[in-house]
Amino acid sequence: MIRKGFTLLEVLIALLVAALISIMSFDFLSNTIFLKERVDTSIERDSKHSRAIHALRLDMMQAVPYKMKDQNFNNLNVSLIGSNSERILTFVSLNTNDLTLTGSNLRRVIYIYKDNKLSRKTTLANNENVVISENLLLDNIENLNLRFGDELSDLSDYYPDAQYSENINFPSYIYISYEFQNEKFQQVLGFFK
Fold first, then answer.
1. Checking CA distances to 103, which of 64, 154, 169, 187 falls within 20 to 30 Å?
2. Close Cβ partners of 166 (under 8 Å, ≥ 6 residues apart)
3. Which residues fall within 8 angstroms of residue 188, CB to CB, at 6 or more apart?
4. Domain residue extents for the chain
5. In sequence order, what are the beta bridge partners of 66?
6. Residue 107: how many CA atoms within 13 Å on its side-chain side?
């Protein structure tokens, strides 16, 4: 009489092979999931960074030579205030995307760098007490430094500087350097005059 079936050794070998295939498949799948999460995080980080720089460029493209007033409504006789303090940029822009008010589309745009966060705030052009929007653009941005001037070889840490003339509303260049997610970045931006 011939018996048909598997021996105990054959069953154990088949189970061992199946276990090895499962372990390798699990390792491959877990590495794939880990890689996907890293790629998604990198894409999100790069997207936030690009949106922040794009917002700044768009605001600068829409900037108008509007002489601002301070919070007490005194004339400042400048169209741009720039420094490396907490409030890094202030100027007036013609915001074509903001339809919240039926009046003027002129908005004072204020870029703020505080606690390694870059924020953008818009107010009425001559009344900072009326805040229209406030958005966090980038988090974990370090060593942000701005320089202003009409020649890239001769930049100042603030604007207007001692060479300021009322006939010049904006500097030709704003040089920005910063670190974001352990990478160093440098941007040269300009205004349309």
1. 169
2. 77
3. 152, 173, 174, 175, 176
4. 59-189
5. none
6. 24
Residue at 85: amino acid letter: S
What is the DSSP annotation of 144-192?
EEEEEEEETTEEESSBS-TT--TT--S-SEEEEEEEETTEEEEEEE---
**Which amino acid appears at position 139 of this protein?**
D
Pair 163, 33: CB distance under 8 Å:
no
Of 9-13, 73-77, 151-155, 156-160, where does mean pLDDT reach its minimum? 73-77
**Widest distance between CA atoms in the chain:** 111
What stretches of 6-130 show up as alpha helix (H) in DSSP? Answer: 8-61
Return d(Cα 56, Cα 51) in angstroms, integer.
Answer: 9
What integer pLDDT is reported at residue 162 of this predicted model?
64
Q: Is residue 84 predicted with pLDDT exceeding 60?
A: yes
